[in-house]
Design goal:
Blueprint: H1 3-11, H2 25-30, H3 37-48, H4 56-63, H5 70-74, H6 81-95, H7 100-113, H8 116-131, H9 134-141, H10 143-146, H11 150-154, E1 168-169, E2 177-182, H12 187-190, H13 192-204, E3 207-210, H14 220-224, H15 228-241, E4 249-252, H16 255-262, H17 272-284, E5 285-287, H18 288-294, E6 309-313, H19 316-321, H20 328-332, E7 339-342, H21 356-359, H22 361-378, E8 382-385, H23 388-396, E9 404-406, H24 408-414
Parallel strand pairs: 2-3, 2-4, 4-5, 6-7, 6-8, 8-9
Antiparallel strand pairs: 1-3
Helix pairs in contact: 1-3, 1-6, 3-6, 13-24
The structure holds iron/sulfur cluster (2 copies).
One iron/sulfur cluster is lined by residues 14-20, 37-38, 41, 71, 75, 77, 79.
């Protein structure tokens, strides 16, 4: 089936009722129909039917969609908006190629994320930048303002040396089973605390944890940026890496990656057997808080009390992508003394999903400002989030604050007796 037919097929479900408009953050900000789900669907229908020329403005209307999927969740006709948008962006990349520099930048970023040794090399360079005093000098010099890179640089969290994980971490105590851990592209550098906590917690719960060496980026960024073939290449590597295990689940800690792993079967696979492998793989994947909610917890597992206030942030990828309720709250209530509550305004995107914070910084910062206001009003000591992209983006907006932003498993592992 051609891309055009796929788009027309999916868009045909939309009855143009407009029920999705009030839940769309870009429509709320602009009140422009072209910045709404219904408007974008109509634009894609026009493009696929050959009634509309690919243009810069069409490109911008699609690029400004943050793929939060609020519209998809609310839609009574069950329009598969994310798939429609992915196909639309692929078609637009063919019909309206970006500038040579923009294409180079996109391919360089995606190539970086596809190879762990490249990420580790960049991590070493950036660590040198942070630790040598160069960062302070650059910030003081005004160079960032001159080169318009102040926002980008502000997103850099304090970096650690990449950790090299063993291929297996054995259970402790009574055995319950065996899981594989999907670490993604940036997990071993940016998300070490979360991965370490996950391993510790699962081991103490009686699960051995396998970490496939050949696994790679989930491919979500490639897919959502119109590079479907690259997304297939990365997914194939993950299928091969997780092919031969007999695990209870393939656990992941980033809900953004998980929402894409769940969508592996809908990638444009070259043959049916690979699509079936993708289906088997997707069925095995489990978000960590969901997995922890389903298993037996030994009576002997106790937590040290923590007298702090926690606000639970629910990422769009968890709420709309995985269609998963907040499972962090009941887990965290196992820690005595912890006061756990939902962060007000959870239905609204924070602007930090995928590459949105980089490609659409103005809208992203506007959304983050709303979220930071909600955090300030809630007065938490800690904010927990199951998506590292959101956590990183929110933390970059609170540089001088004492509020910690962590994955819920980090708190659970820290408080284990
Ligand atoms: S996407 Fe769904 S909710 Fe939005 S206009 Fe179409 S049918 Fe209605
Ligand atoms: S995914 Fe989010 S931003 Fe995009 S059209 Fe739907 S509601 Fe609007």
């Amino acid at each position: 089936m051609s891309l055009q037919s796929k788009i027309l097929d999916l868009a045909d479900r939309c009855v143009k009722c407009g029920l999705c408009l009030p839940s769309c953050p870009t429509y709320q900000q602009t009140l422009n129909e072209n910045e709404s789900p219904r408007g974008r669907i109509a634009l894609l229908q026009g493009l696929a039917a050959g009634q509309l020329q690919a243009s810069r403005s069409l490109h911008q209307h699609l690029a400004r969609c943050m793929n939060c999927r609020n519209c998809e969740r609310i839609c009574p006709a069950e329009v598969q908006y994310e798939q429609l948008l992915d196909h639309g962006r692929s078609l637009l990349a063919e019909k309206y190629p970006a500038s040579r520099f923009a294409r180079w930048l996109k391919h360089a970023s995606l190539a970086l994320l596809s190879r762990r040794e490249r990420i580790n090399r960049l991590n070493r360079l950036l660590r040198f930048y942070q630790r040598s005093g160069l960062q302070r000098l650059v910030r003081f010099s005004g160079l960032l303002r001159l080169t318009n890179t102040r926002h980008l640089e502000s997103l850099l969290p304090p970096l650690k040396t990449a950790r090299h994980y063993a291929s297996r971490y054995l259970y402790i105590g009574e055995p319950q089973g065996r899981v594989a851990l999907f670490s993604g592209c940036l997990g071993t550098t940016l998300e070490q605390d979360t991965l370490n906590a996950t391993i510790i917690l699962l081991n103490r719960l009686g699960f051995s944890v396998d970490i496939g060496k050949a696994q790679t980026c989930c491919g979500a960024l490639a897919r959502h940026n119109g590079e479907a073939q690259q997304a297939v290449t990365l997914a194939r590597q993950n299928l091969a890496s997780f092919a031969n295990g007999n695990w209870d689940a393939i656990v992941y800690t980033a809900s953004g990656c998980g929402a894409h792993l769940l969508n592996y079967p809908s990638l444009p696979w070259p043959d049916e057997s690979l699509r079936q492998q993708a289906e088997t793989f997707s069925r095995q994947t489990r978000e960590i808080t969901a997995f922890l909610s389903e298993i037996d917890w030994p009576e002997t597992l106790k937590f040290t009390p923590l007298h702090k206030r926690v606000a639970v942030h629910e990422p769009c990828s968890q709420r709309n992508g995985l269609r998963q309720a907040d499972l962090a709250t009941p887990l965290l209530r196992r820690i005595p003394g912890l006061e756990v509550g939902s962060l007000p305004g959870n239905a609204q995107c924070c602007g930090g999903g995928g590459s949105y914070m980089l490609t659409q910084p103005v809208t992203a910062q506007r959304l983050r400002a709303e979220k930071l206001k909600a955090i300030e009003a809630a007065h938490p000591d800690i904010v927990v989030s199951t998506n590292p992209g959101c956590a990183l983006y929110l933390a970059a907006g609170l540089p001088a604050s004492n509020i910690r932003i962590v994955h819920p498993v980090v708190l659970l592992a820290e408080q284990l007796v």
